[in-house]
């Protein structure tokens, strides 16, 4: 007898009304919020009681998304968040596959009596969920959520759901330029536009709402860009002092790392951002072709991600982290 697909298992759990909690990863991005909001709309439209609990806040350029104002911030509403998690029948974990990605919520998920459903597209999933939709070859979690919703009820994708899914797919595929963008990605995007996603408006909301301070910070970042001698690698540094001068807000450095890859002949770009509150250097890695930045991030900087997009961090000072990075990059082969 053939085993049920995870989509069928989830469908069977939703036959009668249930209480659901949806949790994206900390510092949620467009894909994490888009997938969470899309599932939340779908569940509530179907008569279930569903709520999103975010581990912390997220950038202002995501706060236009349909249903965003109903998201509960765990840091600001800890007591209520714990109560909701403890009383849930189902917990959906979106766009992450390791409970360390949700900070303090981790212990509450582990203690909860609810069935846990993971929907994610990152490599090396941890074994914490009862049901997994885990497909690292897919460009975004929103694509997986689209498939799940269509498998349950293909006529249930409303304009708000379409807008949320479009946002997540667009942002996690680099506006459809990353190699993970497939012909099926474009077919999904076409359906979402048909269902009411306003592609031009969504693009403007995400990419054309910068503050003057953000553009000034970008200028500093580009001024700080350095190339490794005789190697196709560049990196950017931003100190806490430089962030403070530009009145840094969460999300202001989004996309800065990609500017390095716009240089002719460059296949690797890295940004290092000092965070004095957390006492770490946050790092983002981007690459072209077969340069596996997830391997680089995991091996040297306690991180991981995808082959061409990954994150990491360092507990050293910004200067020491820069020195370590330079040494590592100089030791790498020039051709990738």
Protein model, in words:
This protein is of the alpha/beta class and 336 residues long. The protein contains 13 helices and 12 strands. The strands form 2 sheets. The protein has a 6-stranded parallel sheet, with helices on both faces. A 6-stranded mixed sheet has the order 7-8-9-10-12-11. A hairpin with a 4-residue loop joins strand 9 and strand 10. Helix 2 runs parallel beside helix 5. The longest helix is centred in the N-terminal third of the chain and has 16 residues. The chain is globular, with a radius of gyration of 20 Å. The termini are far apart. The model has no long low-confidence stretch (mean pLDDT 95).
Rg (C-alpha, Å): 20 Å
Q: Main sheet, how many strands, which sense, barrel?
A: 6 strands, parallel
Query: Quick one: overall form?
Result: globular
**Strand residue percentage:** 15-25%
Number of helices: 13
Class from helix and strand fractions: alpha/beta
Strand order of the largest sheet: 3-2-1-4-5-6
Overall pLDDT level: 95
Amino-to-carboxy terminus distance: 46 Å
Helical amount = 25-40%
- How many DSSP-defined strands? 12
Order of helices and strands: HEHEEHEHEEHHHHHEEHHEEHEEH
Residue runs with pLDDT of under 50 for 5 or more positions: none
Short structural description:
This protein is of the alpha/beta class and 336 residues long. The chain has 13 helices and twelve strands.
Question: Can you lay out the helices and strands and say which pair or pack?
Answer:
Layout: H1 6-13, E1 19-24, H2 30-45, E2 49-54, E3 72-73, H3 78-87, E4 90-94, H4 105-111, E5 115-120, E6 131-134, H5 141-153, H6 159-172, H7 183-194, H8 199-207, H9 212-223, E7 226-227, E8 233-238, H10 240-245, H11 258-261, E9 268-275, E10 280-287, H12 293-300, E11 304-305, E12 309-314, H13 318-331
Parallel strand pairs: 1-2, 1-4, 2-3, 4-5, 5-6, 8-9
Antiparallel strand pairs: 7-8, 9-10, 10-12, 11-12
Helix pairs in contact: 2-5, 2-6, 5-6, 6-7, 6-8
